[in-house]
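Dig into what follows:

_____
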Amino acid sequence: MNVFVTGASGFVGGHLCRYINECGHNIFVSKSDILHTESLLAELKSNEWDACIHLAAISSYLQCQENPSLAFQVNLAGTAHLLELIGRLGKEVHFIFASTAQVYRAKDNAAHLVFKEDSLVGPQTVYGKSKLYSEEVIRKA
């Protein structure tokens, strides 16, 4: 399988790319800004790939809280932008999106939180909200 990866330079991306490579798959790492149409579209067009793993995001709690506009621009608008560009290619691909447990509603004073897919959502942070809204964009794409 050929895999296109955004956010490969982050903590999860680095480990995931090594794992994908060890499994014998080809990796195409995006070096483009997720919001830069020309360079991102050129990367998407320049390689034959079957799956896109989208990890690019501003994930720092502090950075998201201090600059919510930037967090929503990169995390939410960036996801929508990537989906739009993939749609322009007109091909069926697998799309994997890394969200966060921060989309779920945390119970007060819970020492240990366990979330399931059917747990109630209710993000308390800018990061959690940007990821939840991104999930909605993906569902509607």
